[in-house]
Specification:
The protein is an alpha+beta fold. 18% of the residues lie in helices and 17% in strands. The chain has a two-stranded antiparallel sheet with strand order 1-4. A two-stranded antiparallel ribbon has the order 2-3. It starts with a strand and ends in a 12-residue tail after the last strand.
Length: 82
């Protein structure tokens, strides 16, 4: 099953944990908030299977719960499956 991810920038506290854990998936924007580099934080690109463990670790460690993961695309809406 494919996995998709997006960061809710409204709740991200810019701690950098996800970037440290999964630098192939996450980076920081100009304001310091995390975003998904695979699709410019749109949640439309499937995460490569090789990155699933890092994705799960980043999701687990996100102190604000801003990383969202689903088996369907988010289409740019971080709250789509809340």
């Amino acid at each position: 099953m494919m996995k998709y991810t997006i960061v809710n920038k409204e709740t991200c506290i810019a701690c950098g944990a996800c970037n440290d854990i999964a630098p192939d998936i996450f980076n920081h924007d100009r304001k310091g908030h995390s975003h998904v580099i695979l699709d410019d934080n749109q949640g439309t690109a499937a995460v490569p299977e090789d990155f699933y463990d890092d994705l799960e670790d980043a999701w687990d460690e996100c102190p604000s719960g801003s990383i969202k993961v689903a088996d369907k695309p988010f289409d740019g809406d971080a709250e789509k499956f809340d």
